[in-house]
Amino acid sequence: MAPTSEPGVQAQPRLRRFSMEGCFGRNWLAAAADRHPPLATLALGETVEVETANSRNIDLRPGVVVETAPKRTEGYGNPVTGPFLVEGIRAGDWVAVHLEEIGAARYGYIRRGGPFLNRSRIVLEVRDGRVLFPGGVSVPARPMLGVIGVIPAADSSDPGPHGGNMDTVDVRAGSVFHVRAQRDGGWLVLGDAHGIQGEGEITCTGLEIDAITRLRVERSPGFPCQNPVIETADEWQTMATHAVWADAVRGAFAEMVELLRGRWGLSDEDANVLVGTAAHVKNSSIWGVGGLCLGVGPYAATVRVGLTTAVAQSDGGA
Q: What is the DSSP string of 88-112?
């Protein structure tokens, strides 16, 4: 038998991979901890791969009728894979989920927009890193996770301080998702991957798709924020959800002010000046924009405020 590695070279351990087979459905809030035992315990610093199902948990292929396709398991409505316990994490601790890679499946589905909203959903192909749209056009795929968070200690609105169904395009490879554990062990869940989604998710779907996410969980330094914090290569992002878009912006603005006060020791006035001048407002999911086009609602919005990670203390010079 041939050697499995070169002499003197230590073989790398195989990553643990967790199947989507046991994914469970949209109602995954506090009661899920009673119905679904932990899938596994992750060590701090361990890298794993997690399979997740598309938002309807159906097999997708060309010609399938999305609305009538049979579901593979329970997971109706943004199913998640998990929950995962994290060694050493206690309620109140912050967890950092490092998203190393998100690989999308070959086929996903989208919802039509504008006056075509109520027509049948469409299955699209991802090929060579591009999403193939009708009309002979394509765009680069940008896989991300629509749902990520921890099971809360008590039922609450979703999304919220636990994370949840945020549909945030920056929950993608290369980003770090920081969230405060609500229970001992963390109880991390993830799912609802999109092959691509625009800011706002304005038809209430991205390219809903199966995916495999490679991630690593670490202990986060923590933040003086109520809601999760996203760290990208070049931004800190705080967030809030509200039934009124402007109030969601105010909430995310206030969270960023608190982050600056806590992390850099800025006064309330100085933090407000910096956020009001240099930060960006970004839409995660404006739920029901498609429905609003048809005159139904009301709905809610999840909004982020992003500020460059290049924030630095002044040296006091002129």
A: T--TT-EEEEEEEEEEEEEEEEE--
Predicted model pTM: 0.91
Nearest Cα to 199, choosing from 318, 71, 289, 99? 289
85: tokens are 């316990």
What are 141's two structure tokens?
Answer: 């795929």
d(C-alpha 170, C-alpha 150), whole Å = 18
Q: Can you state the angle between helices 245-264 and 268-278, rounded to 10 degrees?
A: 120
Q: Rounded to whole angstroms, how far apart are CA atoms 318 and 202? A: 46
Q: Summarize the confidence of residues 105-110 as an average pLDDT.
A: 98
Cβ(197)–Cβ(145) below 8 Å:
no
For 24, other C-beta atoms within 10 Å of its C-beta total 22
Q: What token pair was written down for 45?
A: 């610093």
User: Cα(303)–Cα(199) distance, rounded to whole angstroms?
Assistant: 10
Please count the residues of the chain: 318
User: Which amino acid does the sequence have at 188?
Assistant: L
pLDDT digits (tens, 9 = 90+) for 204-219: 899 999 999 999 999 9
Residue located via tokens 């790398």: 12
**Mean of the pLDDT values across residues 169-178?**
98
Q: Over 70: is that where the pLDDT of 289 sits?
A: no
Tokens of 31: 């009661």
Average pLDDT over residues 188-199: 96
Please tell me the predicted confidence (pLDDT) of residue 75. Answer: 53
Domains, the chain, ordered by start: 16-222 (2.60.120.580), 224-309 (3.10.28.20)
Please list, in sequence order, all residues whose beta carbon lies within 8 angstroms of the beta carbon of residue 50, skipping any fewer than 6 positions away.
17, 18, 81, 82, 190, 212, 213, 215
